[in-house]
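seq as requested:
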Amino acid sequence: MLKVSKKNLTIATIVSLIICAVVIGLKQPKENAPKEMFGMDSTSFKYVDNFDSGKDPNVIGGVRVTEVSPGAVIKDIYESERCYGGECYSMKLDYSVPKNGHASFITGLNGLDMSAARMLSLQVKKGKGNGEFQLIVEDASGRKSDVDSRKFITPSGEWREMEIPVSVFHQIDMDNLRSIEVRFGNRVKNVAGTIYLDEIKFKGPREIFFNSIRDNIHGFPDRILADSRKKSLFELDDRELLEGIGRDTWRYFENAVDSRHNLPVDFLMLMPQKQIGDYTSPTNIGLYLINIVSAYDLGFISEKEAKNRIFNSLKILKGLAKWHGLFYNFYSTTNLQVAREYISSVDNGWLAVGLVISRSAFGQSIGKQCSELLEGMDFGLLYNETIGHINLGFDINEGYSPYNYGLLVTESRIISFIAIGKGDVPKEHWYKLYRTLPKEWTWQTQAPEGHSERIMGIEVFKGHYVVDGMEIVPSWGGSLFEFLMPALIVDTKNLAPDSFGLNNLRAVKVHMKFAKSKGYPVWGISPSSTPDGSYGGYSEFGVASLGAKGYKDAGIITPYASFLSLDVLPDEAIRNLRNLLDIYEIYGEYGFYDAVNVKTKQVAYKYMALDQGMILPAIDNYLNDGAIKKRFHADPIGKAAIDLLKSEKFFNNN
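C-alpha cells:
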C-alpha cells in the first residue's frame, strides 16, 4: 500500500493497486495487435492467456496442464521466435495421437465470469499437420461444450484469429468457468503435427468487465449523482449530517463485497465508464472489518449482521494462501487467486488492526478466529534488526525489499504498534524510528532543528521543521493521510497531546492555510484518485513543506481528509464538508466520491475501499466518543501502544 519510499525511510506505493488490475487480467493487447475488432476497443477484451511470462500461471492465475490417452504425446513449449504481435511468447504444441486417442492442452479459468462476453477468440498458426482440433470449454460444475475448429478457421502458416460466438457454448454456465481445452485426436486415423496458440481472450461490449463482475457483488449505484439526497443533507444539523453521510458511505461496504467470497472489491468507478476493481488487499479487508464494527456502533446494522459479516470474511481469510501467516498484497475477489506474490508489511498491519478491533468488539464469538489469524502473522520476519526498522515487504521471487519504513509520522507506524504489541519486534524499535531525518541528509525539504536524547540506550534525535511559524514533525509527503490515518485507531489526542496530538492539529492548520493561499475554496490534500485520469488514475498529493520529501499539489482535494480531521478540528472539518457538498457535484448514492480538482471542478467519480474505509470509523469516533480507539486500546495488543504514545514529546515549548 501507499507511497514511494527511499531506503530506511517510509512507505510503499498505492499505485501498485492500479498495476494489480493488469496482473489479474485487465490487459492491453500486445504491440501491433489489432485494437479494434467488431466495434470493440481494448477495454472490451478479457485476456485469459498470452504466454508472455514464459511460465505458469496464465494471465488470470490459472494453471496450464496437458492430458493424454495411452500412446499419445503432447509437448507444450514456450516459443519466442513465433509469436503474435512483436517481442513475446506463444505456445507451441507438438502432438502425436494414435487412432481413437486424444492429447490436450488445458488452461485454467479459475471461476472466471464471462456471462457478458460475446466471443471467445484465439490466434492460431499451423506448423506441421493439418492443425485441426476441438475446443472445449468447461464450467465449474464439470459441464462441457465443444466445437470443431474447422467450423471457424482454416489454419495456415500465418497467424489467424479464431472467433467463436459464446452462444454456441449454451450447455455451460458462463459466469463460473473452469477451463479451456485444445484437444487433438481422430477416431479413424493417427494424427500428428504442430500448432501455435496466442492471445486467448474473451471479447464483448465496452462494459464486459463491469457486466460480468457486477453479478458477483451485492450492488452497484444506479445513478451518478444523488441530488435529492445531497439537498436533504444540507437541512440537517451537524450530527445528523454526519450520520446521514455515514449511512450512505456504509453502502459501499454493504454492497461492494463479493457475494461468494465476502471480501470487498478495491473500487467502483461510475465515470467515464463503469468499472469494478475485482481484487482486494489486506488493508481493504482490515478496513472492511472496522467499518462493520462502526456500522454496528452507529446503528446501521444489527449485532447479528455484524457478526455474520465478520465471521464469513474470517472463514475466507483462513483459507487464503499466505506466507508465514502474512497475507499477500492482492487477491482476486472473483476466484481468490493471489494476484501478486508480494507481502506488504503495512497492508498486513492494517489487516491486523481490523482483526484486533473485531475481537475487541465481539469477544468470544469472533475472538477465537481473529486470534488464530493474528497469532499466525509473524511480523518479526519483516524486521530489519540491523537498523531497527520494519522492511516494506517480501517478494516471493525477489526476496526482501531494499527499503524500510523509517519515519515515525506516516501511516506505516501502525505496523509498529501491532508488531510491538504482539511481541514480534522489540520495544526498542519504536525509538529507532526517525522523528525527523538526520540533519546531514541535505536533500530533505528543510534542515531540521532539535536535540538528541538517549532512550533505552538509543540516541534519538528529537527534531522538527518550522512551517508557518509552527514546530512540526514532518511526514514523508505532507499529506493529511500520513498524519491522521493512525489516529482512527490510536488515541493520540488524549494519550499523546504533546506529540502526535499537537502535531496533527498543526498539520491540519497548515493545510487550511495552504488552501487559502492558493485560492482553493476547500482544503484536504492527500493521496487520491485523479479526476482526469492522470498519473495512472491515482497519485500522492500533499503540502510539500510538511514532508521530508514532499508530495506535489495539483489542486486535487479528497473528502476523506476532512473526515480524518474531525479528530482535531471538527467544526472546521464539518464546514469544509458542507462546502464540498455545496460547490461541487461530488455526492453519489454511496456518499462522497473520491476527489475533485478545485481548479476545474472535475470530479473523480470513483469509490475506493481504502479511502471510503477511513470515513465511517472517523464518524464513529467523533459521534461515539472514540469508540474504535477505545476498542483498540482495550485489546492486549492495543494496550501496548499506550505507553509508547505517553512517552512521546515532540517539542520543548508547546
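Residues 1-43 have pLDDT under 50 and may be disordered.
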